Amino acid sequence: MQWLDAIIQGVLLGGMYAQYALGMALMFGVMRIVNIAHGDVMILLSLIAVTLAGVVPVGNLGLILLVVPIAVALGWVLQKFILNKVVGADPLPSLIATFGLSIALQNLMLEIWSADTRSLPSSGIASESFNIGPIYVGLLPVIVLICAFCITAGLDGVLRFTRFGRGLRAAAADTEAAAMAGVNPKKIYATATAIAVGILGLAAVFAALRATVSPADGPAQLIYAFEAVIIGGMGSIWGAFVGAMVLGVAQAVGLRIDPGLGILFGHLVFLAVLAGRPQGLMARK
Amino acid sequence: MSEPILSTHALSGGYGDFQALFGVDMHIDPGEVIALIGANGAGKSTFLKSVFGMLPVAKQMVRFDGADVGGTPAHKMVRQGLAMVPEGRRLFAGMSVEDNMRVAIDNARLPEDQGQWTRDRLFDLFPILGEKRREMVENLSGGQQQMVAISRALLCQPRVLLCDEISLGLAPKVIREIYAVVPEISAAGTAIVLVEQDVSLAKSASNRLYCMLEGRITLSGASGEISRDEIATAYFGGSHAVA
Amino acid sequence: MSEKTTYMRVQRQTRSSRVAMTICVMVLVGLVTMPWWATSGNIRWAIELSCYIAVAQMWNLLAGYAGLVSVGQQAFIGVAGYTLFVLAQNFGVNPFLAVPLSIITPALLAVPTYLLLHRLDGPYFAIGTWVVAEAVRLATSNIDYVNAGAGLTLRVMTNYSQHEREVAFVILCAILLLVTVGGSYWLLRSRHGLALTAMRDNAVAAASQGVNVNRLRFVIFIAAAVGTGFAGSIYYMAQLRITPAAGFDPFWASMCIFIVMVGGIGAIEGAIIGALIYFCADRFFGEYGSAYMIVLGLMTLIIALYARGGVWGLLQKLGDHPWFPVRRKLIVEDKS
Hints:
The complex is a heterotrimer.
Chain A: H1 2-31, H2 38-55, H3 59-86, H4 91-113, E1 129-132, E2 135-138, H5 139-161, H6 163-173, H7 175-180, H8 185-210, H9 218-232, H10 237-257, H11 262-276
Antiparallel strand pairs in A: 1-2
Helix pairs in contact in A: 1-5, 1-8, 1-9, 1-10, 2-3, 2-4, 2-8, 2-9, 3-4, 3-8, 5-6, 5-8, 6-8, 9-10, 9-11, 10-11
Chain B: E1 6-15, E2 18-28, E3 33-38, H1 44-51, E4 62-64, E5 67-68, H2 74-80, E6 82-85, H3 97-106, H4 119-125, H5 127-131, H6 142-154, E7 160-164, H7 172-179, H8 182-187, E8 191-196, H9 199-205, E9 208-213, E10 216-222, H10 228-236
Parallel strand pairs in B: 3-8, 3-9, 6-7, 7-8
Antiparallel strand pairs in B: 1-2, 1-4, 4-5, 9-10
Chain C: E1 5-11, H1 15-32, H2 34-37, H3 40-65, H4 74-90, H5 95-101, H6 104-117, H7 122-141, E2 152-153, H8 162-189, H9 191-201, H10 203-208, H11 213-239, E3 241-242, H12 244-247, H13 251-263, H14 268-285, H15 290-306, H16 310-318, E4 329-335
Antiparallel strand pairs in C: 1-4, 2-3
């Protein structure tokens, strides 16, 4: 029963990781860019959410409606002023640029918000829970998981069936040929980044509701997102979701074995997948 | 006489420091088929890329439908009515035949129901594509992939179609099949620029012909009136003896 | 027929390189004699600077030539440091002899790391190295034999006098610089050098020219791990203390990236210039804490966007005066 509980808690934790991972899968899939500041951007949005909650009493749903547009705008700025300049065959410039951004962002947050951990006051549904048999389940993690599932399904549908999705898949396969078929790659990139960071905005509010955030937390979130994407299979949207579940379960099971081993277990499962199935669990090939 | 649909004026350019084109003048009328021949490295592909806005050129070097359009990005040229079948086909891997076509439809000059070309018409032209419309393009044969590439370009509803070496690497039977659609395309009023290495194929399929050598036009004229000797001289340069 | 004869010779040395070589020899002599003329504080600085140069040079070899961007070099620093502490403290090995022994573990760690990660694309490789470093850090924090999260202290160093320690340190630092900077120079001038330079410019083209890109990358990854570990052992021996949080601090990776990008990637000179800039900046502005780090981060960002050659790249635009010439220049002279 203890292990069943660990698995359930792990899946719920995976819901959070899936929200981090989806944006990364989308951006890597289309631009071959990994934004090292991915986690820091999420933490920045969390801290903005915490500050906003103290200023405007809009409730959790209202907060999401405020933060997601901010996130989309942030994504647009990121794309326009940084990523557009470094997208290309050579991965080094994008890596270094976003790495520099990550260091700058972390320390900027430290200046503004200090090193304290913060969180959103959990009230209403956020603090409720229920029992499945003997297992205690929080309502908020379930909502997070359901949201993650819906976003994954929605994103997958957008990629399959919409004009934007076809353009994105075409640009990801061959940017130049896509331009020859009338696709504007820059517009596709900008939309993809806006969506990716927009999802992070949602994740940011949930992260601040579920647990605490502090300026130095970004790199860990980046690593979890990355591990989920690789475990699931690069560039696959459902892969990122499944990878996040696997990572969450691995961490929760590790935590049950020894409180010091949770995150390490996640890393070990990631390395094991890399050794045994480097193309990821959900890859077609 | 009406103005050509597409023309270049002293078009020069290349890749970075490397100049590959030296003052190329060329023009094509609506519904006309011209062939552009030349050896490897003569500058044919560079010419197409320069016209299509994929290499930097000055604005007045390319005229399309009465406007200077040199250097306009490729995706905007598609809206104006230019389309290309790129060398090596360059289909979107991981996408079905129909999705490859729909990318072009999504961004075409005209909506599918108002343009000359529809998926149904192309499936009539290339019945095999109709059968394989849900198949991933990477699972198709080379000839079938070339058909998808041509369909994708036509679904942009172009007024000028640029074809870069569409016979390359295909069996003679497949080449005949693909070239058989050229008259049908030009009958619809679409002008076609055929870049070819196969001289006799280029000659028979076109109204006029240009020959390129080292980034310059060395010969041009009506395809039926140019002799093989003239072509050989223009193709390899004057100093080469050709059997 | 003219009476002229054309002489051709290959020139590798330049005047600037002879000057630079002389300065290098002087610096090394100065470094080794430091215990007899410098203060302990200055020696500590020299040790620190030597470690920065070495670690950055190794990262430069990885990212600048082999195209392997790693943000997990701290794994090798920490592992080597811990090996040194365990050998000296738990096994009673002479700590100065333990330094060369401690580079074995980074090599042993580098082999499986590379074999696991080389399948990943550029940016994913980078984060992969980070995961490995984090995994090693967390594992170390859970091993009671090395005192888990609390870390180790090198008490055996009290067996040696201050002077003895300083002499040993400066000699180790001189060897470290010779191995990392000198070794890189030697490697780039050897027949592998051309292959490495070709790889830096275009890995696919290099492979088509018969360069075994994968094998060369593997060798460079191991060599860089060894060089980085060597610097790590010296650094933490000088600190007398190591903890998982310090030894495996991702800040090491940030420092490498900053030094090499600011100094100039893909050039030995760049890593040295960058290390000097970072060392000075740290002395003068380190007290500003996070504001200083914001500037470092933004500088890295701006260099990646607008000046990929860094300071050395800008200097080279003013005139070609290499300190460590790795190119061969064909000199043609007409003599009658």
